[in-house]
Amino acid sequence: MKKLSRRALGGILAGAAVRAPGRGQEAASEAPVDELTRAREAIRTQGRTLAEAAAKLAPETEPAFRFEA
Amino acid sequence: MARVPEEVFFESLGQIHARLVNKEFSARDLARDVCDRLERQGPRYNALALLLRDEGMRRARDVDREIGRERIRGPLQGIPFAVKDLLSLEGHPTTWGAKPYAGQVLGRTATVLRKLSGSGAGLCGKLAMVELAGGGGYRSAAASLTGPGLNPWDRTKWAGGSSSGSAAAVAAGLVPFSLGSETSGSIVTPAAFCGVTALRPTYGLVSRAGAMALSWTLDKIGPFARTAEDCGHILQAIAGGDLLDPGSAGKGFRYVPQYTRPAGEYRAGYAEADIEESADEALRPALREAVAVVRGILAEMKPVELPDLPFGAAISTIISTEGSAAFRQLIESGGVDQLADERQIAGLRAGLEVPAWQYLEAMRIRRQVQVEFAKLFQEVDVLVAPARMSTAPPVAEPLDRASGRRPARAGGGLRAIIAAGNLAGLPALVLPCGFAGGMPVALTLVGRPFSENALLAVGVEFQNRTDWHRRNPVLPVPGPR
How many other CB atoms are there within 10 angstroms of residue B95's CB atom? Predict the structure, then answer.
């Protein structure tokens, strides 16, 4: 059984499908993990931005679920 | 069987319909030639997902009988069209542009297809799209079951997404009109890149029943066509309340240019920084000229700016959360790994992890966006902005920079109008307005909810004064049948 990198293992634990890298396949097989990390970080960054902006809203500002004229 | 002259494929709906009524050729002649064009030339642009020749010919036979009995209807009667492959037609494949759904056959026909059939138009094909409408974010133009959408103006350039085939097919004269969809930028971007006129309707005006759901609170369906007037006729046919779509506003739409305020009475807002700072330099001459034309049409143009709100973060969070929920089964089953684009796969996976508070804060910001637009629309009737800040990028180039999902910075004129307008559910009209480096440049008009007639009035007047919408790419000479 091939040994997984910490990065790949992290991906599997988080539900990502990551295959163990074979010889010479390191970069290709790790790419999905990089993208997942990037995607998670993007969501966290968006969350911080939204939290900061939402703190300035009036407390009675309700989420928008209807879109009318 | 009459041969349909080549120029017909670039005419407006009214012109083509007049030829049908005058019996210059039959609806069957037209449907046959449109199917031939889709079949032969569609693959040149990776634009065709599915040819529906039998369906198109059947509808055309009905229309020929109607016209033979002098039962003349509106300008859609006998017009062949095609739609983005996220709209289902009962008993036929609907792939959503994605490998995991390549064999999917759904048991219902989308409401908009039933409505168009009722107006006499004939469905001749399904058009290519970015897989799952790009809901997870994508890095490559090749993120599609049919390969990268190629631009008829230059096949080394991208057609735009996610309604790639819908825009390319109209630009290349394969169909007189098509339908696409927009969650955030998927009508505006390909229309701008391919140089065709298109309309993103107000959220809820057009039923999405039978359409792939990416974001229940953002998805809209709209037309790609030759002219603003054509978009008005198509919208009239497809709009209307629908109990099958919980997002339906329950409103219809009548295209009534004769009863709409004249374009010269409208006030517009625009931001000089959009053109002089945000747009690529090559686009600026065309955009300046286009704004000058608009200025000559309207009563007033005044400087405006979007409020300082995180439009990009809000819309990305909403699309991630709703899109990943919509495709949760695909993601959790591992089927998502069959998608072509690694970034899309990762984005969909990560979207399942968005905390509830983050989604709700995004929706609170969205409420504020609506409030701010309501204030802005007390001052002006229409917002005028570049549809895109650059022309179509090379197909081989990663889309990181060109993607409509890049975070929109706060402030800075109307630069974030795509994200902001979609968050507020506002209608947008895209008008070709020139070229830069041989590639189309376009302007967008954005208005109050349900103000489509106002946008169309300004758009029609703009197209009366310009001829950019009549320019066509140089295409291969059609061969013998």
Answer: 24
Shortest CB distance from A15 goes to which of B202, B204, B349? B349
Domain spans of chain B? 7-312+355-470
Chain A residue nearest residue B246, CA to CA: A66
Residues 6 or more apart whose CB falls under 8 angstroms from that of A19 comprise A8, A29
Give CA–CA dist B149/B164, Å, rounded.
5
Nearest residue of chain A to residue B369 (CA atoms): A64
pTM, entire model: 0.92
Q: Which of B313, B367, B425 sits opposite A61 (nearest CB)?
A: B367
Domain that holds residue A28: 6-52
- Report if residue A68 sits inside a domain: no
Q: Would residue B207 show up in a list of annotated catalytic residues for this protein?
A: no
Q: Is B363 on the interface with A (CB under 8 A)?
A: yes
φ, ψ of residue B232 to 5 degrees: the values are: -60, -45
* Model confidence at B41: pLDDT above 60: yes
* Peptide bond between residue B163 and the one before it cis (omega within 30 degrees of 0): no
Helices (H), B86-163: 111-118
Q: Is B108 helix (H, G, I), strand (E, B) or coil?
A: coil
Residue A23 lies in a domain: yes
pLDDT digit string, tens, across residues A40-55:
999 999 999 999 999 9
Report the Cα–Cα distance between both ends of chain B, in Å, rounded: 13
Residues B361, A50: C-beta atoms closer than 8 Å: yes
Chain A residues with CB under 8 Å of B424 CB are 67
Whether residue A67 and residue B353 make contact (CB cut-off 8 A), yes or no, is: no
B186 counts as catalytic:
yes
In residues, how long is chain B? 481
A50 vs B337, B358, B425: nearest CB: B358
Q: Contact, B413 vs B307, CB < 8 A?
A: no
Output the CATH code of domain B7-312+355-470.
3.90.1300.10
A-B contacts (CB, under 8 Å): 111
The partner residue sitting opposite B448, judged by closest CB among A39, A47, A69, is A69
Taking only the tens place, the pLDDT of each residue in B146-189 is 999 999 999 999 999 999 999 999 999 999 999 999 999 999 99
Burial B367-400 (b: 16+ CB within 10 A, else e): bbbbbbbeebbeebbbbbbbbbbbbbbebeeebe
Give A19 to chain B, closest Cα distance, Å.
Answer: 12
Give the residue-averaged pLDDT of B86-102. Answer: 98
Phi and psi of B416, rounded to 5°?
-95, 25
**Statement: residue B440 has pLDDT above 90:** yes
How many structural domains does chain A have? Answer: 1
Quote the CA–CA distance of A39 and B351 in Å, as a whole number.
8
Instruction: Give a yes or no: residue A65 inside a domain.
Output: no
| Interchain pair A50, B310: CB under 8 A | yes
User: Considering only B127-141, B191-205, B266-280, B400-414, which range has the smallest mean pLDDT?
Assistant: B400-414
- How far apart, in whole angstroms, are the C-alpha atoms of residue B285 and residue B463? 18
In-domain check, residue A22: yes
Active-site residue (options: B162, B215, B248, B278): B162
